[in-house]
Amino acid sequence: MSTVGFGDFFPSSTIGRLIGLVDSFMGVFLISMLVVTITNVLMLSNYEHNAYLIIEKLHLEKSYLEAAQNLLAKYVRLVKLYKKEELKKNNADISKLKLKKYEYLYNYYVFQKVSTEIQSTFPPYSVYDAINENLNSLEGEFQEMDQRQDQLGE
Question: For a Cys-Cys bond, which of 44, 92, 107, 121 suits 85, CB 3.0-4.6 Å?
């Protein structure tokens, strides 16, 4: 018991007040012991924490590689479509180009999100840095294709 109620019933004798005081302190003590016990049961040991970090790292690496694969696949499809539409020039299907461009941009956003999550959780890795640099260079080529799309649309 950690409270004495609404005040409608209260001890009036000195012994009753003393028992109420001790009872209140015992209630607070028992509740705090319960909280500490539950916290200790739910807290991970160092080994469990390290295992959790390894599993999280593997999951993030898998997500990162999947995002990179999707991004590169969309980029290759976009490049093929640009080349195909440039050959047609007269009958260029701009809506198809825009759709592929937005698919690429969405996958780029997903990749960047996973990349920043990895970098904020773990120290940078050289493999990931290399992939990031390559994809950033592809972004320059993507801007060139965007300019070509504008020229096709005119």
Answer: 92
